[in-house]
Amino acid sequence: MGYKDPDLLKSSDVLRPPDSPERDQVLNSVLMVVDVNPGRAEAMEGNQQRVEVNILLLGAHNVGKSALTVRFLTRRFIGEYGDIESVYSRVDRIDGQEICFNIWDSQSTQAGEKCSSLSDKQLQWADGMILVYSICDRGSFNVVQQQLQQIRRSRKPSSVPVLIVGNKRDLQRHRTVSSEEGRLLALSQRCGFFEVSAAETYHGVLLVFHRLVDLVRETRALRKTNAGVRGIVRSVSAVFGKKRAE
Ligand SMILES: Nc1nc2c(ncn2[C@@H]2O[C@H](COP(=O)(O)OP(=O)(O)O)[C@@H](O)[C@H]2O)c(=O)[nH]1
Ligand SMILES: [Mg+2]
């Protein structure tokens, strides 16, 4: 964890010739690898300072988690990504607010392994999660369902927003998971749902990450409101409890 494999960023680029200095410059300027630090500073939502959002990408091997991550961070589709695990960081401005995206591109479930189990660290670190499957790979859809069950055992829908993303939408001829199935799963588990192609467009991928940030911010705001209400209830019951005792 916490390292950047330079080979990942120098692998053949379908858009530019290999070893293009321009491409390397783009990648190096937007990618920064950060440590997974459980004691990170609390996000400061109210006073327009930078907001930190930790996003965890999960799913089976080969579904395009790294492709989605790199597409979002660099706007590029590189083609081959290797199988490394890293947390990348990038700052964006959305609606006038600085958002720091920390993106944990998790290591894939290995072939033959039924379901990669998520670590407690991953589960606790994430403010929002993206569960990725390939629309051409039913096994990867099953992995998403298994990982969802694991997430729900420790994190309620109200504490961590989850998006289900069917990737490789460009490969319609090879589709084995219908859009309807993806949508129904998302609906039944209170998740958002998208179908995208990391290979074809940047825009769809951007929408996924921005939607998740919106949901994380809504979740934080709701938590603050609920904490406020609980505080009022505690004060009121303290006063009335005291009166009754007098
Ligand atoms: N056709 C197509 N191929 C994709 C897409 N996204 C990723 N891939 C390819 O699928 C393979 C696995 O992608 P990768 O991001 O390494 O998957 P990961 O193991 O989930 O991180 C690579 O060969 C990618 O080029 C997509 O949207 N369409
Ligand atoms: Mg990967």
- Hetero groups: guanosine-5'-diphosphate, magnesium ion
Structural class: alpha/beta
Query: Mean pLDDT score, rounded?
Result: 81
Low-confidence stretches: 1-24, 38-43
The largest pleated sheet is described as: 6 strands, mixed
Strand content: 15-25%
The helical percent reads 40-55%
Q: CATH superfamily membership, which one?
A: P-loop containing nucleotide triphosphate hydrolases
Write down the CATH topology.
Answer: Rossmann fold
Number of domains: 1
Number of helices: 7
So, CATH architecture? 3-Layer(aba) Sandwich
User: In angstroms, what separates the terminal alpha carbons?
Assistant: 59 Å
Shape: elongated
What order do the SSEs take from the amino end to the carboxyl end, as H and E? HHEHEEHEHEHEH
Q: What is the level 1 CATH name?
A: Alpha Beta
Rg: 20 Å
Report the count of strand segments.
Answer: 6
Record the strand order, biggest sheet: 2-3-1-4-5-6
Question: What are the defining features of this structure?
Answer:
binds guanosine-5'-diphosphate; 246 residues; alpha/beta; six-stranded mixed sheet; elongated; disordered N terminus; Rossmann fold
Give an overview in words:
With 246 residues, this protein is α/β, with parallel strands linked by helices. It has one domain (9-245): Rossmann fold (3-Layer(aba) Sandwich), CATH 3.40.50. Helices cover 41% and strands 18% of the residues. The protein is built from seven helices and six strands; from the N terminus they run ααβαββαβαβαβα. Strands 2-3-1-4-5-6 form a six-stranded mixed beta sheet, with helices on both faces. The chain binds guanosine-5'-diphosphate and magnesium ion. The site of guanosine-5'-diphosphate has 20 residues, from α3. It catalyses: GTP + H2O = GDP + phosphate + H(+). Residues 1-10 have a biased composition (Basic and acidic residues). It is an enzyme of class 3 (hydrolase).
